[in-house]
Amino acid sequence: TTLLKHWLESAKTRIGVVVNDVAAVNIDAKLIKSQGSGVDLHTRGDTIQLENGCACCSLGDELIPSILDLLALESEGESFSHVIVELSGVAEPQRVRDIFFEMSISGSELAQAVELSKVVTVIDSSTFCMDYMEYSELMDRPELMDCDNMEVGDLKVVGLLVEQVEVADIVVLNKTDLVEGVSL
Q1: More reliable by pLDDT, 51 or 99
Q2: Can you state the percent helix, strand and coil of the chain, rounding each to 5?
Q3: Which residues lie below 8 Å from residue 85, measured CB to CB, with a gap of 6+?
Q4: What is the CA angle 176-179-184, rounded to 5?
Q5: In the predicted model, what is the mean pLDDT of the chain?
Q6: How far is Cα 127 from Cα 178, in angstroms, rounded to an integer?
Q7: Predicted pLDDT at 18
Q8: How far from 130 is each of 41, 79, 121, 154, 179, CA to CA, in Å?
Q9: pLDDT at 141
Q10: Distance CA 92, CA 156 (A)
Q11: pLDDT: which is higher, 80 or 145
């Protein structure tokens, strides 16, 4: 969310955002609600929220319609230069990549308007190595399992971390100030 907020604050063009947070309260949407200009993104129609689960899991079916809803708002002003789909920390980005691939081969309406350009994974440098070495399942980590989707509950945290890094086109290291140089 910090990276997303930075992109929105420094954007020279209009950016559409699909915010996804598996928590009971959509914290990410609240954090990015306003840009540096103080303009409420919801009143500008730049943000669509997925509030009931993860875009790559139970709400995978809601992702494409949400992007279409966002694109429909373009008639209210300038076109979006980019649409960012912000996923939760427990997201399986390969599923999202697969959704876009299936959409492109099926010739869907959205495939004509948008394409998946990059998958960016943000790594918490202060916890990544510890989480990587731990062999717990997601359901054993209640702070990560705020959604009701038990489909991902038996995934190993390490497997999820590996997928997020392997599927990424770009990996951003966050919280590097909390880690000694040797550990980076």
Answers
A1: 99
A2: 40, 15, 45
A3: 17, 18, 20, 55, 63, 67, 96
A4: 75
A5: 74
A6: 9
A7: 84
A8: 36, 43, 18, 19, 12
A9: 65
A10: 12
A11: 80
Tokens at 102, concatenated: 């299936």
Spatial CA neighbour of 85 closest among 96, 74, 94, 101: 96
pTM (2 d.p.): 0.73
Instruction: Tell me how far CA of residue 7 lies from CA of 3, 17, 32, 59, 97, in angstroms.
Output: 6, 11, 10, 25, 22
Give pLDDT, residue 26.
41
Residue 69 DSSP SS3: helix
In 14-113, where does DSSP find H-type helix?
A: 27-31, 41-44, 60-72, 93-106
Distances (CA, A) of 9 to 19, 38, 118, 127, 132: 16, 10, 20, 27, 32
Task: Report the SS3 class of residue 6.
Answer: helix
The tens digit of pLDDT for each residue in 15-69 reads 888 877 544 434 344 444 444 333 334 333 466 665 554 544 545 667 887 888 8
Q: How confident is the model at residue 176 (pLDDT cuts 50, 70, 90)?
A: very high
Helix or strand run (H / E) with residue 165: helix 157-167
Residue 159 in tokens: 């497997």
Give me the sign of the Cα torsion angle 89, 92, 94, 95.
Answer: negative
From CA 100, how far away is CA 9, in angstroms rounded? Answer: 27
